[in-house]
Amino acid sequence: MPTDVERWKSEVYGNEIREHLLEFAEQGWDTIPEDERDAWFERFKWWGLYHQRNGQESYFMMRIGTPNGVLTPGQTEVVAEVADEYARGPAENPIFGNGYVDWTTRQSIQLHWIKLEDIPEIFDKLESVGLSTQQACGDSWRNIVGCPVAGKDKHEHVDALPVAMELNETFKGNDDHSNLPRKWKVSVTGCREGCGQGDINDLALEPATKEIDGEETKGFNIRIGGGLSRNEPRLARDIDVFVTPEQAPEVSGAISALFRENGDRDNRYNARIKFLMDEWGAEKFRDVLQEEFVDFELETAGDDLRSEYSYNSGYADGGHSDHVGIHEQADGNYYVGLNVLVGRMGVDETKELARVADEYGSGEIRVTQRQNVIITDVPEEKLDALQDEDLLDHYSPDPHPFMRGSIACTGTEFCSLSIVETKNRQVRYARWLKENVELPAGVEDFHIHLSGCTASCAQPQIADISLRGMKTRKNGDPVEALDIGLGGGLGENPNFAEWVTQRVPVDEVPGAIKNLLANFEERREGDETFREFVARTDEEDLAELVEPEETSYEDPMMHNTKRTWYPYADDDSMDASPAPTRADGTPIPSDD
Hints:
alpha+beta, Alpha-Beta Plaits, six-stranded mixed sheet, five-stranded antiparallel sheet
């Protein structure tokens, strides 16, 4: 039997949702029938809106798609204006205040505390500069990711930016591909570092070369079925297909259609294409694609560049390869990558980012999959003045490794799936580690990813240290806790972290990391990296090296365990929640 979601989608879905969304916005939150809210909330996702967690009824998270992470001149300023005017809630975050922008691990933007009644004005503002929330969520083509400096990188093999943009133009709002069995994540990589992270996407176009008609042709090999969600991570698998940049949209559409027709619509857990790949295998997948969905002869795979990949590799020869810092572009100008700790930037700082990008560069901003931002097109003679800007004191192009390596998802602050608080906690972790832990000699990159649940939005399985939200008891009281995994990474030989320790109380995690790094330094062979050390160490031995321990670190959110309406409010019990509220933020009285 089709799932509830499939039934709801069969009634209203895709572009037609917008009309209903705008009607509800005009009439107010409380006009959505209570027994239809689950259906409408599921549909609203297609237009980039997620209803926030219990206790925050009538508030939404809004996701804005920025294909390949590109914000053209003027767009960043409008994002900041929208956040300033519409993304302020009834409570203040103790670290980030009230009003901020979240840069995401899929090169997108998220805003919080959005009111349904403000949606028409927000859409108008965004669309006036070419931005959209369309298909930022939902069972369709999500934001297309890739190398954040595509088209500017002096070392890229093939310019993937035109391909990513054509895919976006072709499939954004395309009715034939608007209702897939589940979300559809696409990566287009043209660089030699592999920073498009194709390994963890449903459809990955990865740089390759093939001799065709006696000429060396640059293009892409295709991989299918990667992903990190839940406890079923997969690396994308080679289907022995090479495409030229000109063929990429047609073949990508054919693969999307194959998924549309053959994905599992009876079981949402089993609906991702990685499970279809499990069932069919690469050979059958290619055969069906050729026989039923493509009307020309597919080329076999060419010579790929995976042996040169260094992005998030965790290997000694990988370098940073995260685009933070000052780097020369192919045209002789420079791009400057700024570290944004856990991806969150205040409204005023986002406005400053737009100003600085306009004053020193072309006004363009790029967003990376490590939740950072890049100012592009800076002439060499302006670099010194740019580095003197106050903005770069807080968002550094040369951050400490614990700052540089920190990623966190939304967490219980807003997310209904998350089990623990994440962003404030990872900021506190990074600051404590910076002050109290000395990294072993030569370790300049160290990635710690904190995900609030098994949905893996912070991509924990591909970090040196992976943290995943759980609960436990300490001294008889329920507290937030984290599973700890080790040794994940991508690069030439990608692999997922080994989960070696479970349910560590959150206040003992910094001590566990400190002890683990000390044990690594003591047992390290030569200049091997942490990932290499983990790879050669038995899993049981790794668990013994973690050693959770209380330290001077104190965690103010330990008690939360998702029993509160907002984890940072002075009175955070569910009874204290002001929600639901009217458009002006005043509470809506109960019918009782």
